[in-house]
Specification:
With 293 residues, this protein is an alpha/beta fold. 45% of the residues lie in helices and 14% in strands. It has one domain: Rossmann fold, CATH 3.40.50. It binds nicotinamide-adenine-dinucleotide. Nicotinamide-adenine-dinucleotide (NAD) binds next to helix 1 and strand 7.
Length: 293
């Protein structure tokens, strides 16, 4: 997609972080933006900020764990602006887990699976039938993570498991639109190349009451990127970070070229991907990769 002017872009989890930056990057290129998020306060703020930039936008409360909520978001977008051209299944949370996975509560797993995996499945089920039926060039972008899709970091087993599933879904969705000869393109967005300065590490702020934490003491103790930096420094690692605006620019440039991989890497992360492939091919017993790079 070369030109985003007057295109309609729906972004889940657009009230903060990567989704918010995507809204501005696309809005500044003339796209009309629809944001669905569970955080009402943050949505109001982003709505004001988009308006101040002269970007045409709608925000609507949307919980990606419920299919009906995403269908309502699709209706809102179509009623406001007409047919949808871009969908970003971006909403995601970090479960904030640490310690042995056999000690996590069912609710810890459920919350993250519901948002990160079912959120993507529900987004596909709500939007893909509309995009495919329209039979016009469109993009369906799924935010994954290199942690799960490419490398298995040892510190967040629930999150990593969800993002492994998300990548399998994304690549299969791409195969299916290709096989169907649909003009809808699928892309996999990997925020990075470093840890991105977003609210992900403080996801507890949007954890639903029904799935609230039951077991104390297995929290990671990290609730911000600064906490991560401090913790890394204790191990002598200087953690580099990326601003979400940089991620959004990288994504938009990739979409302009209809790229599947919206992926920025460093030599260190590329080496980790090679090491992992080599480890599998040589049947080497896995060793945890170092966080960062
Ligand atoms: N921050 C990173 O370093 C990083 C790295 C790789 C991947 N990601 C992925 O990027 C995506 C965006 O996260 P972010 O880093 O911008 O974090 P963020 O917390 O800043 O933004 C996530 C948004 O999703 C919303 N959300 C949470 N649960 C929701 C639900 N049930 N329904 C609708 N919206 C919901 C939140 O309210 C928030 O506005 C996620 O999928 C995340 O896994 C982030």
């Amino acid at each position: 997609m070369k030109d985003f002017k007057d295109k309609v872009a729906v972004i889940t989890g657009g009230a903060s972080g990567v989704g918010r930056s995507l809204a501005f990057a696309l809005g500044c290129r003339g796209a009309r933006i629809v944001i669905g998020d569970v955080d009402r306060e943050a949505m109001e703020a982003v709505s004001r900020d988009l308006e101040a930039e002269g970007i045409e936008a709608r925000v609507a409360h949307c919980d990606v764990t419920a299919l009906a909520s995403l269908q309502a978001l699709a209706d809102t977008a179509e009623e406001a602006f007409g047919a949808i051209d871009l969908v970003f299944a971006n909403a995601g949370i970090g479960a904030g887990e640490s310690g042995a996975m056999w000690d996590y509560s069912e609710k810890d797993w459920q919350w993250c699976m519901n948002v990160n995996v079912w959120g993507v499945i529900n987004s596909i089920r709500a939007f893909m039938p509309r995009l495919v039926a329209r039979n016009q060039p469109a993009h369906f972008v799924i935010t994954g993570s290199g942690n799960g899709a490419m490398v298995i970091y040892p510190d967040a087993p629930i999150y990593t498991a969800t993002k492994a599933a998300v990548h399998a879904i994304t690549e299969n969705l791409h195969f299916q639109v290709q096989a169907a000869q649909s003009p809808v393109k699928v892309s996999a967005l990997f925020p990075g190349p470093h840890v991105v300065e977003t609210g992900l590490f403080n996801s507890g702020r949007v954890r639903p009451e029904a799935l609230k934490k039951e077991i104390e003491g297995n929290e990671s103790g990290i609730t911000s990127v600064d906490d991560m930096k401090r913790m890394a420094a204790e191990y002598g690692i200087e953690l580099k970070t990326t601003h979400p605006d940089e991620v959004a620019e990288m994504a938009v440039k990739g979409l302009e070229q209809d790229a599947f991989w919206l992926l920025a890497t460093t030599p260190e992360t590329e080496q980790k991907i090679r090491d992992r492939a080599e480890m599998i091919l040589s049947r080497k017993t896995p060793e945890p990769p170092m966080v960062g790079g």
